[in-house]
Amino acid sequence: MAIAELSDVDLADPDRFVEAVPYDMLALLRREDPVHWQEEPDGSGFWAVMKYADIKAVHMDWETYSSERGGTSLQELTGEQLEQRKSMIDTDPPRHKKLRSLINTNFNPNAVKGHEQAVRALISEITDRALELQEMEFVSEVSAELPMAVFAEMLGAPQEDRRYLVDLGDRILGTDDPELVDPEELRKNRHLPFSSPAAGEMFEYGRALAEQRRREPRDDIVTSLVQAELDGQPLTQREFDTFFLLLATAGNETTRHTISHGLLALHDHPEQLARLKEEPELIPRATEEILRWATPVMHFRRTATRDVELGGKQIREGDKVVTWLISGNRDEDVFENPDTFDVGRRPNRHQTFGPGGVHFCIGAGLARMEIRLMFEELVPRIGSIELTGKPERLRSNFFNAIKRLPVRITPA
User: Are 169 and 139 in contact (CB under 8 A)?
Assistant: First the structure.
């Protein structure tokens, strides 16, 4: 539906995001009510922060806008439920810094660079296989294959399990989509991350892998976690469980959706595909534009720790404050022609990995490398892209996700 006035706005309804991201709604809010109070049918409501500068202000001030006090999702949980499902991203410093330090070395630039040759070879294999098919469901054949294959290797999980881990991740994160989750199961499992019973399956898988690594340590993330100490003590079972789940899902889902959106953008803007084929040196810039365009995680929640004014609105202690990164990435005050897909865009200070601060995405370097290499390998091989069916989106106001993307790719 067309959004003409503020009374039409509803950011809390996942149905508004099924056909497409309602960019007209986000633009209206940026113009007329950039810190907007949104009622919720099953919650207390939240402040929706829509402008780039305000989003950055929230993320840079963790003492005022806490990730730990209420978690980072819109769900309202009891203290016990929040504690049971708390992961690294649901903590504030100093604990957040300590948890992050346990895996920092796995994601630093040197570590990421060390994976590049193997990742490129894997991408070449995936794209060769896909282009032999020509007609395919791109998500399952290409964009879901790469991130989980890479991350299975980094975690220490067998490659033959990667499809199972992808399926678990879909079920954990697709909590508003009836194809993936039974609403009754969500009500029964509020103590689990995303209230998903699949989170329990992911915990069991991670525990079995951890037991193997205790017997046979390797150079992988699970070994690092089972050997880690926090304040002189090993990680608790809950800390290990939530850490493993966070890494197994975040390492796959966001990169996968970005690659899918990237291919769809090149289909929708064939002149940009032609430009990349003529100027392949633009692919690093195109990677940043695809990240801005996709914004796979649409928002994050914080909780106000004190009364504070933001954007002319009085926010009270305990209020939910939700930063809409997908709106910040289309802010007209920051991006020239923000609704134009431009593979040569510069500058491009998008907020897809967060606008900075203590919660900036630890896997940003790895994601950038995977996306860049994917399009470096794919673009020269594409003759044309044709949709053979309608893209199917996830029913979610949290993930900007494509479930299925049926295409025909004619080789160059």
Answer: no
**Which structure tokens are listed for 301?**
């929640």
Examine the pLDDT at 181 and tell me if it is beyond 80: no
Q: Where are the domains of the chain?
A: 6-411
**Alpha carbons 130 and 7: distance in angstroms, whole number:** 46
d(CA 225, CA 102): 7
Asked if 112 and 369 touch (Cβ cutoff 8 Å), the reply is yes
pLDDT at site 203: 95
DSSP codes joined into one string, 75-100: ----HHHHHHH--GGG--TTHHHHHH
pLDDT, mean of residues 210-223: 96
Structure confidence at residue 1 (pLDDT)? 57
pLDDT in tens, 150-179: 989 999 999 999 999 999 999 888 888 988
Mean of the per-residue pLDDT values for the chain? 94
Q: Are 202 and 243 in contact (CB under 8 A)?
A: no
Report d(CA 251, CA 74) in Å as an integer: 21
Among 307, 298, 312, 296, smallest CA distance to 37 is for 312
Please list the residues that pair with 313 across neighbouring strands: 310
Quote the crossing angle between the two packed helices 237-268 and 197-215, to the nearest 10°. 110
Q: Which of helix, strand or coil describes residue 246?
A: helix
Q: Indicate the pTM of the whole model.
A: 0.96
Return the exposure string of 269-299: e unless at least 16 CB atoms fall within 10 Å of the residue's CB, then b: beebbebbeeeeebbebbbbbbbbbbbbbbb
Cα–Cα distance, 133 to 385 (Å, whole number): 13
| Better-scored residue on pLDDT, 83 or 360 | 360
> In this structure, which amino acid lies at residue 303?
T
Residues in Cβ contact with 161 at an 8 Å cutoff, skipping those fewer than 6 apart: 152, 205
**Residue 2 in this model has a pLDDT that exceeds 70:** no
For domain 6-411, the CATH class is mainly alpha
Phi-psi sector, 156: left (phi>0), alpha (psi -120 to 50), beta: left
